[in-house]
Write a structure and sequence with these properties.
Layout lengths: L8 H4 L15 E14 L5 E9 L5 E3 L2 H11 L10 E12 L2 E8 L1
Antiparallel strand pairs: 1-2, 1-4, 2-3, 4-5
Length: about 110
Amino acid sequence: MNDPRGIHMGEMVPSETFTSGDFAGGAKTYTIKGVEMRSLTEDDGRKKMRGTVRFREDDRGWLLNKTNVTCLAAMFGDWSGDWLGKRVTLFCDVTVKFGKDTVMGIRVE
């Protein structure tokens, strides 16, 4: 279907994982269907393992950072198996600190 507003920015640069911009229009609620470890390549070429949450309502994953892992553990327990079937609401936080910079980030409630 053609949208009179044109093409949404998210369609121009598709991603396998959520970005903070996916929630700029408002929070969205999802049901956790799985959690996996994923190997990522850093800008300097080093490999890094990151937890990724999968949802029933969307095929993209949510790459976790320490803050969001801590929040999920506080909400549902320390083991990812306890998170399955739980509902979470993700939103864009424009006050996330990344080093000395303030950036947009995904947060959970």
